[in-house]
Task: structure prediction
Amino acid sequence: QSALTQPHSVSGSPGQSVTISCTGTSSDVGGYNYVSWYQQHPGKAPKLIIFDVSQRPSGVPDRFSGSKSGDTASLTISGLQAEDEADYYCCSEADRYIVIFGGGTKLTVL
Amino acid sequence: QVHLVQSGAEVRKPGASVKVSCKASGYSFTNHAIHWVRQAPGQRLEWMGWIITGNGNTKYSQKFQDRVTITRDTSANTAYMELSGLRSEDSAVYYCVKGGAPPPGNWFDLWGQGSLVTVSS
Result:
């Protein structure tokens, strides 16, 4: 299974909004409402920030939101803060209970 | 507190095997699957497989199907990942992660601290 497609990098200024896309196929992103997103700071384990396309775990600020249209899921971070600078990975269930991650996106807060 | 604690760093020669352990605490071990995810230096996250800890059923990524074995010991609340036929490209941090409900779960709300495996002659 190929990795889901994410932009290599995105950037934004403090207070702005950024959106990270995650494109798959009808066999993964498009076929299931099981997209999750993870934030990873350097040298740390990833942290779950969105599950089931748009659900936020407790403790995750509502500045983080998720959506999906067709084969593409999106993560939007509004009111950018310096601590949001990190790598972001999307993840989707695929056919036969396989799991696929995206290639990762580096977010730079200018 | 809810934790996944993994075994320490390992160094192996090419062709050898490595077995990484993952001890769970603070939640009902048999109610959630354990998945294994690896990350080579500077690379993306890569899913390897899962085990449903309640019944031992497993599923592996096609990429690792022939080389990986995931097991569990419910009496010790511990899961294991063994990777054989190691090559230099297997040098990575290996994470165990707790799957969401119901098993196998497709999102991961608890991560171990990671175990660094280095493959070098």
